[in-house]
Amino acid sequence: MATGDLATADMVLNIGPQHPATHGVLRLALTLDGERIVRADPVIGYMHRGAEKLFEVRDYRQILVLTNRHDWLSSFGNELGVVLAVERMLGMEVPVRAVWLRTLLAELNRVLNHLMFLGSYPIELGAITPIFYAFREREEIQAVMEEISGGRMHYMFNRVGGLKEDMPAGWPDRARAAVRRVRVRVRDDIDALVRGNEIFRARTRGVGVLSRELAEAFGVSGPIARASGLDVDLRRDEPYLAYADLPADVLRVVTRTEGDCLARFECLLDQVYVSLDIAEHCLDVLDSLPVGPINVRLPKVVKAPEGETYAWTENPLGINGYYLVSRGEKTPWRLKLRTASFNNVQVLAELLPGELLADMVAILGSMFFVVGDVDK
Amino acid sequence: MIALEVVAKLLGCLLVFLTVPLLVGQMEHKAMAHMQSRLGPMYAGGFHGWAQLVADGVKFAQKESVVPARADRRVFELAPAVALLPYLFVLITIPVGPGQTARDLSVGVFFALAVVSVGVIGVLMAGWSSANKYSLLGGMRAGAQLMAYELPLVLAAASAAMAAGTLSLDGIVHAWRWWWLPYQGIAAVVFFVAALAELRRPPFDMPVADSEIVFGPFTEYTGLRFALFLLAEYGGIVVFSALTAVLFLGGWKGPFFEAQLGWLWLLLKTMALSFVVIWLRVTYPRLRADQLQKLAWVGLVPLALAQIALTGVVRVTTS
Amino acid sequence: MTQVPGKGLVHGLGVTLRTMTTRSVTQEYPHVRPDLPPRSRGVIALLEENCTVCMLCARECPDWCIYIDSHKETVPAREEGARPRTRNVLDRFAIDYSLCMYCGICIEVCPFDALFWSPEFEYAEHDLGFMTHERDRLREWMPTVPAPPADVLNAEPAKEVPS
């Protein structure tokens, strides 16, 4: 040691599993030199519930209850993956009303999910107000979702072959009104309060840049990947439900190339507008559809035929995939779950070193993950 | 007789120190709530939750006061007092009417600025003695922040003192005229922003950034000691708002009855400035420590120097 | 995006000030009751008379939180010459709400309309043990069950009309 130098030592700082910055129980073991991060290890698994193993001892309707819960902010999207896989195995034709209603609810669910992060991300940066505005808007849409499905978070509304019930009378108008109100207020309140704010931009622009290559290497998907210029959106690239029938000016894929925290936030924010547009389009189509069923009458026991399939969907947080292997029983032999958050969080170990502690929360928050979705 | 008067004045100061911060606290509860489309406290005390802070105080008093096993016990216990008392002392020098000061000092500005800075020592003590990594980081951030903001604070205050030609706070108010608003406007903004940073209020609250370092230096505090830190924060808001009002907004000067109602004019100005402090907290995210330093050295210090130059030129040419 | 520096900051102040002058959205819950839609999944009500102890609900429950006990009883023949019949008598029907995941599968599978959703939700307890509602308690929820809402016009009409 040169004379005059003070002896310094790296400090290991645990962010989580119990820490105000981690939604849930993700733990980051940070090695700090002053306030600069030298090493970051995401430690996951505190909330592992063995979802895949639980799937194996439940029939396809019961599995929906569980898929509702691994990413509790995208319940409807999760349900979709399972029913799409089973329907594909059965070669089942889903009624057109169910297809459009599923698309509508999936997009409303996307808005709910994004609003959550649009509110919680500014909190990481010390802005305490947007979350209240976001939750006010969430409440609008949750009321609509509750009216049709009976649930506020765990909708349990999909069934193999369609949906549980049709829309109650008057619901489409209330949904349309809610969509309209949310669009105006997201623009006037959340967008105006956060997006243009110079402090917010200074905290996020150029911070935590995720390169397109890194995003590809780690299998990052969803808005985070699109913010890095990885232009992948299954709704457009491998359409399921009614996405193929949406006009291109309704189903716009929001991308950015910067790959920084600001780009990720803006992707999320702009996707809300897109989803609201899609929802409105779906409502119009649903109004014009002829009288018809909302589901398929099922046999007493639904058994997927022997074989395997992989169904993936563009969940709000990224690509959510179910690999279903059936041996002809009423329960799957194996149902492998690929969640968006799991892959998205892995990239933190590459992204964080070299950044400041204060930027850590900006980056962590901008990776938009749900811990239940990471740990399964 | 004189001793009695001194005691009465000191008790008055103490009373103000114990009530006005609560008013600000309550205003923060309600204003913040409504800005966030909420109602805020509605039940404590019956009418719109006016007694919420009293209830909070009772709650804090009931809580166990924990001192961490590895903490530096005496420093840890002393820190809240060191953080709180300086603001009380500054209150003594604030003029509430023409010639009405608990103790008018001829060097009032110096005294006030020197003493309020001591409060940060309390935060540093808390950060260091808690034996907690988050506290330590927060304490260091608070110290660094003080270094950056003391200079613009002093320069801005110096400009007001130069313009008035006196260091006495009462004298500055006497010399104040309405056209000081544009004339000393830059200094007022610099002073207010620097005061926010010194108070560790958003958008400059990195020392207590909850999403990064839990609650910074106060992480390990519980019960009454924690409440004292909170009181220090709101006392600090009152003191700095009052100082800004005295230096740049004419203190006790008002449209009428200055001699009798000077205290009211000052209180109104103080509350208005406190509202701005709250408003900023509700609206803005926090800066990063290095961005704050940059703002201080690249933004506020040059501005304050320019203001001093302007004040100097005006003084020389008009006298 | 080039803009005047500080414009976003001022704009933000405007947003919060505007919100302060508008009505807040808080509902003071214990004093203002939430208006819940009929499909809300709050609590499960049991119409005991309809239950035939077929056990479908208990078997289909994804976390097995429904407990049913029964015994067989012989019903004497109604008319001369006929054989006496046996029927199931319900001894216990209980739902453990500390386990229930509120999926509604039990209600869906019940072939005799003995189970219903009710939007009631105020049955929190201080002890997990009290979260198991026995049949009397489940019966008490019945008056709170709302009529199902009508569907939109272009929905397929229901196959069976509820009486």
Describe the SSE topology.
The complex is a heterotrimer of chains A (376), B (319) and C (163).
Chain A lengths: L10 E5 L11 E7 L2 E8 L7 H5 L4 H11 L4 H16 L5 H29 L5 H20 L8 E2 L2 E2 L7 H25 L2 H7 L7 H6 L4 H6 L6 H4 L23 H28 L18 E9 L2 E9 L7 E5 L1 H7 L1 H4 L5 H10 L4 H5 L1
Antiparallel strand pairs in A: 1-2, 2-3, 4-5, 6-7, 7-8
Chain B lengths: L1 H34 L16 H11 L10 H20 L15 H22 L3 H32 L4 H7 L4 H4 L1 H14 L11 H4 L9 H26 L9 H26 L5 H30 L1
Chain C lengths: L6 H15 L21 E4 L9 H5 L5 E10 L9 E12 L8 H5 L5 E4 L13 E2 L1 H6 L23
Antiparallel strand pairs in C: 1-4, 2-3, 3-5
Mean pLDDT of chain C: 85
**What structural class is derived from the secondary structure elements of chain A?**
alpha+beta
| CATH class call of the domain at 37-144 in chain C | Alpha Beta
Net shape of chain C: elongated
- SSE topology string of chain A: EEEHHHHHEEHHHHHHEEEHHHH
Structural class of chain C: alpha+beta
Number of H/I helices of chain C? 4
What can you see in these coordinates?
The complex is a heterotrimer of chains A (376), B (319) and C (163). Chain A is of the alpha+beta class. Chain A has a single domain, classed as Cytochrome-c3 Hydrogenase, chain B. Chain A has helices spanning 51-55, 60-70, 75-90, 96-124, 130-149, 171-195, 198-204, 212-217, 222-227, 234-237, 261-288, 340-346, 348-351, 357-366, 371-375, and strands spanning 11-15, 27-33, 36-43, 158-159, 162-163, 307-315, 318-326, 334-338. In chain A, helix 4 (96-124) runs antiparallel to helix 14 and helix 6 packs antiparallel against helix 11. The N and C termini of chain A lie far apart (48 Å). Chain B has 319 residues and is an all-alpha fold. Chain B has one domain (2-318). Helices cover 72% and strands 0% of the residues of chain B. Chain B starts with a helix and ends with a helix. The model of chain B has no long low-confidence stretch (mean pLDDT 84). Chain C is 19% helix and 20% strand. The longest helix of chain C is centred in the first third of the chain and has 15 residues, at 7-21. Chain C has four helices and five strands, in the order H-E-H-E-E-H-E-E-H. The A-C interface holds A 58, 61-62, 64-66, 68-69, 97, 129, 133, 136, 139, 143, 146-151, 154, 156, 164-172, 188-189, 192-201, 287, 289-294 and C 3, 5-9, 11-12, 14-16, 19, 25, 36-41, 60, 62, 101-105, 108, 117, 149-156.
